[in-house]
Automatic annotation (TrEMBL), chain A:
CDD domains: GT4_PimA-like
InterPro entries xrefs: Glyco_trans_1, Glyco_trans_4-like_N
Domain Glycosyltransferase subfamily 4-like N-terminal stretches: 25-175
Pfam families xrefs: Glyco_transf_4, Glycos_transf_1
Enzyme category, top tier: transferase
Annotated organism of origin: Moorella mulderi DSM 14980
Gene name of this polypeptide: mshA
Glycosyltransferase recorded as keyword: yes
Matches recorded under Gene3D superfamilies: Glycogen Phosphorylase B
Transferase found in the keyword field: yes
Keywords, sorted A to Z: Glycosyltransferase, Transferase
Designated name of the protein: D-inositol 3-phosphate glycosyltransferase
E.C. numbers: 2.4.1.250
The organism's taxonomic lineage, starting at the top: Bacteria, Bacillati, Bacillota, Clostridia, Neomoorellales
GO molecular function annotations of the record: D-inositol-3-phosphate glycosyltransferase activity
Record-annotated Glycosyl transferase family domain positions: 185-343
From TrEMBL, chain B:
Organism (species): Moorella mulderi DSM 14980
InterPro entries hit by this protein: Glyco_trans_1, Glycosyltransferase_grp1
Source organism superkingdom: Bacteria
UniProt KW keywords: Glycosyltransferase, Transferase
Protein name: GDP-mannose-dependent alpha-(1-6)-phosphatidylinositol monomannoside mannosyltransferase
Class of this enzyme: transferase
């Protein structure tokens, strides 16, 4: 029996901010924490390699993190340097910025990301021909977090996608996220638990809020948002200040451990993504908390929400969003029914199931021993 | 107020030269859509390829246009002739998306029944790269004419937004439907000591996973004396059906037959597990929805719209339909009665949200915005 290398290098855009200090808050990062925990438990030695303002070396939760100086407009050069510096086994955290995939490697897809409104067919083609095709050809396996990526990729590259793509939907930690008794409150609270990035649909949501607040005096909106991008936060505050009923537009910047309480205080959770969406953690967590979810029919959200069964699945337009919010505000019993079904379906996305599926592929592609 | 007239364009509802008609999913959809339009007060006619004959089906006149040229999976002569000759009609429905190429009536709606180019064999059909590009180009033009594009699954919408974007707000998701009064669980589930019946309720074609299923049946019937397989569906031709019968004759506890539509609810009710192991070319499958409405757990392939209706591990399984995966998934459910029961019950609950009445409401809403 030959023991093989235990080291796995994970290439990722930003586990930490580019200064190498504070951890970045986002779905990709959460995914990587869980994956690194699993790999460590399986006996691997994990290191992270990421973009940086200038080269750094630090540790995060005991894992070494290496920063490589990067220029926002020439990220491929940084990836190239990582490729040249790191020996041994590599796991690629996303398709987005990678150019090279070495043999016997896994690459993770977090969903189709290039379908933004306003793109032309030429833009779209460049995205899948430059990025998706390379990953499909070079990597051993692509683990996709949703069925939508697999099916879109297969409709473009039937052979390759069918051979290379496997689906492991995202997970929810049921020990943290479960339905809780809600305190009686006079107001109906709608929660937006997402980053302020354009793809997450903040612009769409803010358009529908003023008329609803005017119409329903007992309605309030709660934004649980990040501080990753100062510019987005400025836009948020500028908008909020001008809003006539801003006493009922609340916000907070919770860290991850505070999220169960944030969800618990809500009646309705909106996930109004307009593009670049997988099996969203926020959506799964809201479901596990037994909340009535309104999600758009974008990307992997369609693999979580069945319209009218465990939430409402809408086309991302103002009309549909307004109509869905009105419906749930007016029908408290429907909120409870959808929420109960959401909590039941969330159990099929238990973190332990996710780990069991990942284990199989890790052992296959990165075996620890060879007989 | 005068009655408004709708013309629905399709390729082959009837066979162009004889009266043969196989009521597959698309044909049933068309009949139901025509009924709905009439209920809403429209006069409806169907137009298709043929020698110029006129027939009637279910109270709807079906006219044929004597053209047959097909290139790059489009029918430019048919579409053009339809455009020129249907001026007396107020509105049009393109029952197949590509029929809206090269020209479409102003007040019209086109329907996509799911992606059919996601299987390796399509590469052969689509031909050389330039031909595939030309086909895609025509598909892009087909999207421009109609005012609304209806998709039976979310996967198709996401595919088009990721390849031929620009029609973001034309798309509407109207999933397929099931008559939940007709398809319902049995009054009483049968005794647990009975054999376990696995049902394959599809046509005998490779993309539906027939070959993998036959192999899985061989393995599982050899392993368990209490398991049986029922194949219920037509082949594309007599030969496929004959080959199936020959194979069945060599197998223990494997059965092959087909039943008229009105018998299908009972066929589902008698099954314990229903498999829809499509490799590709799938929308929100009527067979899957009917099985679910009948309270059966479904083992489905992870293709097209099946992930819109099956949640893996909740109301069934979504698997890559290899022989190995099929055997494992069937074994898992066959040996666990409690799991079959809970998944079957949830399947019924989920199917209720794909009730035909909800489908009709969704369609009525779209018709209201375009046909006015």
């Amino acid at each position: 029996m030959i023991l093989l290398d235990r080291q796995i290098a994970i290439f990722t855009p930003n586990l930490l901010a580019w200064n190498g200090q504070e951890p970045v808050i986002g779905g990709l990062e959460r995914y990587l924490h869980a994956l690194a925990e699993l790999l460590t438990e399986m006996g691997y030695e994990v290191s992270f390699h990421q973009n940086a303002h200038r080269d750094f070396q630090t540790t995060f939760r005991g894992w070494p993190v290496y920063g490589y100086q990067a220029d926002q407009h020439h990220l491929h050069l940084t990836v190239k340097r990582m490729e040249e510096t790191v020996r041994g086994r590599v796991l690629y955290s996303s398709i987005l910025q990678q150019v090279y995939y070495r043999p016997r490697s896994i690459c993770i897809s977090h969903g189709v990301w290039w379908e933004l409104p306003g793109y032309s067919p030429a833009h779209a083609r460049a995205a899948y021909e430059n990025y998706v095709a390379a990953a499909l050809i070079q990597a051993t396996l692509i683990i996709s977090c949703d069925y939508n990526f697999l099916n879109v990729a297969r409709a473009i590259y039937p052979n390759l996608a069918d051979q290379k793509v496997r689906v492991i939907p995202n997970f929810v930690d049921l020990t943290q996220f479960y339905p809780r008794e809600k305190e009686q409150q006079p107001r109906v609270r709608v929660l937006y638990p997402r980053r302020l990035a354009p793809e997450r649909g903040f612009d769409l949501l803010k358009e529908v809020i003023p008329p609803l607040l005017a119409e329903y005096p007992d309605l309030e909106f709660h934004f649980a948002i990040d501080k990753n991008t100062p510019r987005y936060l400025e836009i948020f505050h500028a908008w909020r200040q001008k809003e006539a009923h801003n006493g009922r537009v609340l916000y907070c910047h919770p860290d991850f451990n505070a999220m169960p309480e944030v969800y618990a205080a809500a009646d309705i959770v909106v996930i109004p993504s307009i593009y670049s969406e997988g099996t969203s953690f926020s959506c799964l967590e809201a479901m596990a908390m037994g909340k009535a979810v309104i999600a758009t029919n974008v990307g992997g959200l369609t693999n979580l929400i069945i319209d009218g069964y465990n939430g409402l699945l809408i086309h991302p337009t103002r009309e549909y969003l307004t109509q869905a919010l009105r419906f749930l505000i007016d029908h408290p019993r429907e909120r409870l029914r959808l929420g109960a079904n959401a909590a039941a379906t969330a159990r099929a996305f238990d973190r332990r199931l996710w780990e069991a599926r990942w284990r199989q592929y890790i052992s296959k592609v990165y075996p620890l021993e060879r007989l | 107020m005068t009655t408004k007239k709708v013309a629905l364009l399709t390729t082959n509802f009837f066979h162009p030269t004889n009266e043969r008609i196989i009521m597959g999913g698309a044909e049933r959809y068309q009949v139901d859509l025509c009924r709905l339009l009439r209920e809403l007060g429209f006069y409806v006619e169907v137009w298709q390829i043929g020698s110029g004959w006129t027939r009637e089906f279910d109270g709807v006149r079906i006219r044929s246009i004597p053209v047959s040229r097909s290139e790059y999976h489009t029918f430019p002569d048919l579409s053009t002739a339809f455009y020129e000759n249907s001026m007396a009609f107020d509105y049009a429905i393109y029952f197949i998306l590509t029929l809206a190429y090269p020209i479409a009536r102003e007040k019209s709606i086109a329907i996509s029944h799911g992606i059919f180019w996601d299987w390796p064999g399509f590469d052969l059909m689509a031909g050389r790269l330039e031909e595939r590009q030309e086909w895609l180009r025509r598909l892009g033009i087909a999207l421009t004419g109609p005012q609304k594009l209806i998709s039976v699954d979310t996967n198709t919408i996401n595919f088009f937004n990721a390849t031929l974007p620009g029609f973001y707000h034309k798309w509407e998701y109207i999933p397929n439907y099931v008559d939940t009064d007709l398809f319902h669980p049995p009054e009483e589930e049968k005794n647990s000591t009975d054999t376990i019946r696995v049902l394959f309720p599809r046509r005998l074609v490779p993309v539906r996973g027939i070959n993998e299923t036959m192999r899985a049946a061989e393995k599982l019937t050899a392993r368990y004396p209490w398991i049986e397989f029922h194949f219920c569906g037509r082949g594309h031709d007599d030969n496929a059906e004959r080959l199936m019968s020959q194979w069945i004759a060599t197998q223990e506890r494997c059965f092959y037959y087909w039943k008229p539509l009105e018998m299908m609810p009972e066929v589902y009710r008698q099954a314990d597990i229903v498999i829809i192991p499509s490799r590709s070319t799938e929308g929100t499958s009527l067979a899957a929805l009917e099985a679910m409405a009948s309270g059966r757990p479904v083992i489905a392939g992870l293709a097209g719209g099946l992930s819109d209706i099956v949640l893996h591990g909740y109301n069934g399984y979504l698997i890559k339909p290899t022989v190995e995966n099929l055997v494992a998934a069937i074994e898992d459910l066959a040996r666990d009665k409690a799991k079959r029961q809970i998944m079957g019950q949830r399947a019924r609950e989920v199917a209720m949200t794909f009730n035909r009445k909800i489908w009709a409401e969704r369609w009525a809403r779209v018709l209201e915005t375009v046909f006015r």
